[in-house]
Amino acid sequence: MATPDPTLLTAAEAASRLGVKRQTLYAYVSRGVIARELSLDGRTSLFRAEDVDSLRSAHRRTSSGEVESVIASSITKVDEAGHSYRGVPAIELADGSLEDTAELLWGGESQPWVVPDEAIAAVRALQASLPDDVALIDRLRGSVLALSAHDQLRHDPTPDGHRRAGRLLLTSMVDGLPFVGGTDHHAADRPGAHERLADRLWPRLSARPSDRRRRDCLNAALVLLADHGLAASTFAARIAASVRADPYSIVSSGLGAMGGVLHGAASEGVHRLLDEAHAIGPETAIGQHLRDGRSINGVGHAVYRSSDPREIALTERIGAAWDGDDRLQTVQATRAILQERTSKGPINVDFALGSLTWLADMEPGGGQCIFVARAAGWIAHGIEEMDERPLRFRAVARWRPSRPPLPEDHE
To answer: N or C end of the chain: smaller count of CB under 10 Å?
Structure first.
């Protein structure tokens, strides 16, 4: 029997629309693939038509070799209009701090971000042992390792335990990084001891003088990158949480996936392209990339088909903060050419992030360090995953014989 509310479906209707048996539908519920509601009688299962149609669309999309998974989550909604954290558009939060955004993502009551001196000391001791030219992503991994070894309560599975670890992780990963040039050259420009993480991160990534507007750009990037649904790194973090890993292992799992050149490291390619564009001209630089078969990062997105709202918001702030800087013309000209002459899709947030690191004279890999904000999302997904059935992610491998090597070519 159909429900009087067209936005709700009975189990029979939902199963029929999905083309599966009711047992399969309830298996989806137990795995968190789709949510159900109870009718007023407390016994009948009801399903939102929107959720059913979304799941059906995901099942019908086909891509050679692609693996898709649908996971129910109330943390971040991502669609063509942008992304929102707990129902609040992320762009509206971009003028706030990463700390406030993290607390929103984690739920619960906000707490002071106080880190024990011995924890920071442990992180800095490990950082001091690393070579000066070590990659920034490796410094982040080292900080997580030092914190994990220091925290005797790291296996606390409660939401408060994860929140406590999240505050410790985000603060220490920033404050544990060495200053560029060994000294904080910009301390006099900042408001005092209780700065945002963004204010403290700037001198650890750039020796270039900063002002409030430029640090606001960095802060906006941190907020906009704090979560974006089930990106590869977040999926890795949730898998770790499903086996009841501690928060440090969850963040380490996310960092592992984030290190990929198609994920957190994508902005490095943009940074290097801008280097070339400034030296030989944007059109020549892009042409050389295309002629040499080199990929061009910062263009296209799996969700956003017309524009990436994160890129637009960050690009507007960058334009205002670097107004009058000759190098901004290089960024704008390169962006215009890519927007007009590529068919890969819209300019994405990696281009804006690469523009920020280039204009701020950060290392090309500085964008990965800014992506440290995603740890806020990983912790949120870890908390949410703890309420699900453990060990629920189990992919099934279809065995196939080894492929014979291709024959060598002989002239």
So the answer is: C
Q: What is the CA radius of gyration of the chain?
A: 23
How far is CA 25 from its chain centroid? 30
Q: Degrees (nearest 5) of the Cα angle 400, 60, 396?
A: 30
Q: What CATH code is carried by the domain that includes residue 273?
A: 1.10.230.10
End position of a domain, from candidates 316, 341, 359: 359
Residue 203 lies in a domain: yes
Closest CA to 374 of 271, 215, 264: 264
Burial category of 350 from C-beta neighbours within 10 Å (exposed 0-12, middle 13-18, buried 19 and up): buried
Q: Which two tokens stand for residue 363?
A: 């290392």
Q: Which domain holds residue 322?
A: 266-359
List of residues 6+ apart from 131 with CB closer than 8 A? none
Q: Which residue has the tokens 């129910």?
A: 72
Please choose, from the candidates 222, 258, 250, the residue with its C-alpha nearest in 3D space to the C-alpha of residue 383: 250
Series of mean pLDDT values for 10-residue runs along the chain (411 residues): 73 88 84 82 85 74 59 90 95 96 94 89 93 91 94 94 96 92 60 75 92 96 96 94 97 91 85 97 94 88 87 97 96 95 85 97 93 96 94 80 58 41
Does 24 fall in a domain? Answer: yes
- 3 state DSSP class of 186: coil
Residue 198 has which token pair?
Answer: 């963004």
Stated pTM of the model: 0.82
With respect to residue 115, please indicate whether it lies within any of the assigned structural domains: yes
CA dihedral 29, 32, 34, 37 (to 10 degrees): 60
| Biggest CA pair distance of the chain | 78
Residues contacting residue 4 through CB under 8 Å, at least 6 positions apart: none
Count of the separate structural domains present in the chain:
3
Task: Provide CB contacts within 8 A for 158, sequence distance 6+.
Answer: none
